[in-house]
Amino acid sequence: MAPPLIELRGVGKTFTSRSTTVSALDSIDLEIEAGEIFAIIGHSGAGKSTLVRLINALEHPTSGTVTVDGVVITEQSEKDLRRVRSRIGMIFQQFHLFRSRTVFGNVAYPLKLAGRPKERQRARVAELLSFVGLTDKAWAYPDQLSGGQKQRVGIARALANDPAILLADESTSALDPETTQDVLRLLRRVNSELGVTVVVVTHEMDVVRSIADRVAVLDSGRLVEVGTVYDVFSAPRTDTGRRLVETVLRNRPDADEVARLRKQHEGSLVSVTVDGDAVMGQVLTDAVRRHDLRFEIVHGGIDTLQGRSYGSVTLALSGAERDVETAVASLRAVATVEVLA
Ligand SMILES: Nc1ncnc2c1ncn2[C@@H]1O[C@H](COP(=O)(O)OP(=O)(O)OP(=O)(O)O)[C@@H](O)[C@H]1O
Q: Can you tell me the ipTM of this complex?
């Protein structure tokens, strides 16, 4: 198997000022494979931006090693780091475009810095603007563009020198939901058509869900979960993971919601979680048909993650106690079931 494109081993980062020491990252071991879309999530202050800044060597770790594309960047001189950085493009929440330069000028800038001849610059900018769908805006200034268009320029500029990696730090956080989806579609094309490995830092779980292959959860500088989006979202192993994921997946009702449901519905409240290939509708109808029961879905829903169905619904099951018990037992054979107290 090819070695990981990005590898962090035992990475720690502390910031020390005169009066305080902040541990931003602690003992991070992480591997990001070539060709994947990898998301890093966590609450504000968890260390996400610091982690990204270590990958492009804008910060240096206090301990541990960072390897990018086979180069141990923690051992490189500033001059050699420039070569590593040229393999990495970056986009930001606030776009960071030059307001005094046209779209063309912004995208041409890294090519100019790299010493590309004028003719080559022109051809490459045309190619990039066509890729991001902004050919007609080449001579516009950033202030004349929408947020989504500005981020497209940011993406074109980040791709100018053919990077292997694109780091996206909260790149859609300033955009409305529809524009966010447009930018995410573009990032997916960057990954699938150009083969660029994309690392997305975000606090928006919807972004992770709609774009990432794998996700890492950071909590107070520690890496607490890493896995496929399906695994982490459908079965988070930590409280932090659970809290983050619950912001997008309507999961089991909390205690207040259970009390409210109890007042509104008769019968037993039963939460049924289906993952993977089981089909929720089928599971429910089969279980209920075999018994003399009525059921109503009172909370939750089914969703698709990475092409697999996932969901948790709470049912109010009414009927004879024995029938409810048998139905719950048969549901247990195919799903995770919890009878809510
Ligand atoms: N240059 C710095 N000097 C001192 N402390 C810093 C510095 N950069 C980051 N920190 C601290 O390190 C911790 C992690 O910060 P970081 O910006 O990486 O978190 P984050 O997860 O990206 O947060 P946010 O989502 O709010 O951007 C925080 O406690 C922050 O205050």
A: 0.95
